[in-house]
What we know:
Layout: E1 3-7, H1 12-23, E2 29-32, H2 37-47, E3 54-57, E4 60-63, H3 67-74
Parallel strand pairs: 1-2
Antiparallel strand pairs: 1-3, 3-4
Amino acid sequence: MKVTVYSTPTCPFCKKVKGYLSENKVEFTDIDVSADQEQAQKMIAKSGQMGVPVTDIDGELVIGFDEKALKEKLGL
């Protein structure tokens, strides 16, 4: 399973998503879109969202901190 979190360092919901993934021992790649414009554009193209967090779980997106959706897509 490939999990990528598009986030920024100052976003409280990003911290919640990453905390939730860590608590459930889910490995993920964290991409700071405030420091990487190319990745920010990729996130916007994928999700249609300008805001973070956007979590990509094997190509399925979860926008924001949606614990129910994360749990379901991760099979927890």
